[in-house]
Amino acid sequence: MDLNFIESTLILMFVSKAKDTMNGVYVIGEIGQNHNGSVDIAKLITEVAARPVQENLFGLTLRPMDAVKMTKRDLKEELSQSQMDRPYASAHSFGATYGEHRAYLELTNEEHFEVYKHAKALGLEFVETLCAVGCLSMLKLFTPDRLKVASRDLTNLPLLSALGETRIPIILSTGMAGQKELDDAIAVVSKHHSDISILHCVSEYPTQPQNVNLNTIRFLQKHYGQYTIGYSDHTIGIATPVAAVAMGAEIIEKHITLDRNMKGTDQAGSLGIDGMNRMMRDIRMLEMQFGVEEIFISEGVNAAKVKLERSIATKRAMKAGEVIAESDLHMLSPGDGFKWADVNLLVGKRLSVDIPADEIIYASMLTV
Fold first, then answer.
1. Which residue, 192, 81, 180, 91, is CA-closest to 147?
2. How far apart are CA 98 and CA 79, in angstroms?
3. Rounded-to-integer distance, Cα 97 and Cα 115, Å
4. What are the φ/ψ torsions at residue 188 (nearest 5 degrees)?
5. Distance between CA 310 and CA 316 in Å, rounded?
6. pLDDT digits (tens, 9 = 90+) for 192-249
7. 3-289 with 299-365: one CATH topology?
8. C-beta of residue 90 within 8 angstroms of C-beta of residue 99
9. What's the pTM?
10. What is the separation of C-alpha 130 from the centre of its chain, rounded to a whole number of angstroms?
11. How far, in Å, CA of 173 to CA of 365, rounded?
12. In the chain, what are the domain boundaries?
């Protein structure tokens, strides 16, 4: 038996099962630190992410993103002192040193809580990336719907253990990981719970097309099918996350902002307001397009079928009483008459009426 066929079938079964059991693809809009140190900007981005998507051609109102995500760092557990003290003269800098820059971009636990409550009021879930054990103090104020492990922390096993102990659903991102690093991370978290999602990711900003390797999604589906598999995107545009959904990704994560021209290193590679709308339109419409695994004539095709498909017609003008021969017939539109597969229902039959050349022959035109 063809092993490739078996493998493909198993993947399709898994994807089909996932589509049946989930309420669509779970899309996370990553605010990260695109708020530029402002809780008000974070709340504005959240409001944009919560807007329903309109598809005017079909009169559809489509579900927006499912969640927004923010990132919390503990600067005492972030960088070496020499890195914190180094001059940072970038056009995107918010401070004279990298430490001052990072401090400017940090919102307090209370401000994260404020954005969390705002997201909840708008019907969104809230995902939090906690970058250090010290950041777990945030959980005294609220419980995020999911915790995200940044790619750089997949090998930070003490952090993973602490996050796992919370028993909050956890998302692992593989942007800097091979299989061993992923397996080590899963082993640590799964000591506490199994509500784990794995996102294929490439930590290159932006990711060059030749480095995306979307087939890693299939690898993860095959080898880690007991977990939810998704994709965290750093490419330019919206084509890649939409393609990932077509491959069965159940979670999509994408950086979002109010304006890609804003100051900040992640802004240019994020989706602006129009980009968010277009990505969500395409993802939600793609969900509707999966359908069922069979071939059939869709109800929406009937009008085009009648208008464009061909039916058996006369090649020449024919008189009432004439017997139809196959040489008298050819195929013309519209498609509401006999098909060539039924030509034997016409050949040898006698006409009951005159028919001009190049007209469709209908059953009512035949003698009984």
1. 192
2. 10
3. 28
4. -70, -50
5. 17
6. 999 999 999 999 989 999 999 999 999 999 999 999 999 999 999 999 999 999 999 9
7. no
8. no
9. 0.85
10. 24
11. 69
12. 3-289, 299-365
| pLDDT tens digits, one per residue of 47-101 | 999 999 999 999 999 999 999 999 999 988 888 999 999 999 888 889 999 999 8
Residue carrying the six token digits 């995500």: 69
Report the CATH number of the 3-289 domain.
3.20.20.70
Radius of gyration of the chain (CA): 29
Candidates 25, 155, 158, 162; CA nearest to 172 is 155
Q: What pLDDT does residue 297 have?
A: 84
Alpha-carbon span 127 to 29, nearest angstrom: 9
Residue 141 and residue 110 in contact, taking contact as beta carbons nearer than 8 Å: yes
Q: Return the pLDDT at 17.
A: 39
- Residue that the structure tokens 């750089």 belong to: 152
CA dihedral of residues 314, 316, 321, 323 (deg, nearest 10): -70
What is the pLDDT, as a whole number, of residue 132? 95
One-character DSSP codes across 126-175: EEEEE-SGGGGGGGGT---SEEEE-GGGTT-HHHHHHHHHTT--EEEE-T
Structure token pair of residue 299: 């109800």
Q: Looking at the DSSP assignment, which residues form a beta bridge with residue 30?
A: 69, 255
Q: What is the CATH number of domain 299-365?
A: 3.90.1210.10
Model confidence at 23, pLDDT cuts 50, 70, 90, reads: confident
For the chain, give the mean pLDDT: 92
